[in-house]
Each structure stands twice: as C-alpha cells, then as structure tokens.
Amino acid sequence: MRYAITWTGYGKDTYLYGSRLTFEEGRAQLANPLIPAGNALFEWRSFADYQAEKKAAQLPLLKKGQSYRLILEARMLPEESLYLRIGFYNAFQEEIGFSVIKEGSGQFTYPKEAHAYQISLINAGCELLDFQHLLLEEVLEQEELKSFKVLFLNERYEKDLKTSSLKNEKGVMIVQGKERDDAFSEDFIKTLKARYDRERMPETRLFFIGTGDLENQAALYARSALAGGEVYLMKEEGDLAEAGNQIYTFQAPEETKALKLLAPIRNPIDLFLQQPQLC
Question: Which pLDDT tens digit goes with each residue over 42-57?
Fold first, then answer.
C-alpha cells in the first residue's frame, strides 16, 4: 500500500491566525513567522462525522499491528522546523497512544487496540512552508532491496535534492556536510559497511555516486574499502573518469550516469516506484 496525503483546502484543522495560506498546483504554501511552537498547522483524520463536518475521512484504513513508513515532502524555513505526530484512538475516540516522527521521515506501528488515527503537522519554529504531500506506505517484513545507493553529495546540489526525507530511508545513504568531509576516515568506512551489511540482501546491487571532484574521490575510495560495488562519477568537463575497472566518458552533467541515478532521489516517490535505469 502506498498513499499520498495532500493538503488542498481550508478547514477547522488549519492554523489561520495571522497566516498567509495559498494553494497552487496541488501544493499548500503557508507564511507566518508568529505561529507558536507546538501548534498543529493542519490535521488529517481517519474518522469523520459527515453530518457535522460535511467531509469524509482523510486517511486510509490501516492494518492492526502493521508497521508503516511516513514521509513528509515539503520545503521549509528554517529547515527541519516541523514534525509529525500520529495519534491512535479507540472506539470511543479516546487517544490511547501516539508516535512522533522528526527529520522528515520515520516508521510507526498501528496498535492492535486502535480503531482510528490522526496525523498532525506540528510547528517547531517554521516561518515559511511549501507543502507537497505526505507519503504513507506499508513496511514489509522482508522488503526486497534491489539497490543500495551511497550518494556523496556536493554542496551545490544540496538545495536541489530533497535529502531530508531520505536520511533514514532503507537503501539510500546521503553523505554530505561534515560526514562528507570525513568520508576517508576509518570510522566512516566502518559506519558505511555496518549499514550496508545490515540492509542488503543476496541480490542487492551496491552503487557509489560522486557528484564533484572530492565526492568522486570519496566514491572511489569507498568502493575500494568495501571491495565491491559500481561507481558512477560526475564531471562538468567532457573528460574521462575512472570508476573501478571501467572508463566512462562524460558529456554534459545532465547526461551522465550519475544524474540518471540521482533522478529518482530528486523525487522520493519515484525512488519507491522504480529503480534507476543504468543505461
């Protein structure tokens, strides 16, 4: 199950005091530097009193005892200034528990005692918000992991790629900032190897992706340290780059194999729907 949860209109669950809220092309854009921290900007419910509220339930039914992944797709200022709260309710609409998801994505388990749930978008100092959607999907006990991608991200791409929602995702490791600077250290290689060993399956393909001069060297070094995997390097000039035992000729950056691997990472929904084409 994969379900996109949108915010497409006003309602009694919308925080409007002093807010400028607009809806355009399926996105909600909100500006209000004075929203108190801890207030819900919007709430979605799996239950609704149609006679009173004149609207149907906004969330899909969940399986009792099943684990789910919830991803926030949004741009905000300051960064990571929102979090998600999932409240669980019994048949009398009394809250019996809750889960909190920070850093853009996380998992929760729907309690066996629950009859309904509510997702709240909670302010933690957000002043500007461009909300796209929430993505809700089942977490399978034995998810098939076709590829494990280690992306060494050059700072010039950090604003373009929606990395915050991918930090905790299975099969994707984003290396940026201080972690990128430490990519040649023994501690980083140990962390990388431990995560890859924990998540991989027998058929999982390992990719190292470089997106700049330093990042290319880090990708090559990581492949050597793990003694396996495929390397894709990005060059702005049309020269040759060595990746493992193969030589690749790079044209314009938008035509490189590295960018073909980056394409589904730019859109996290595509990351779940399909694997990148290596051609």
Answer: 999 998 754 445 566 7
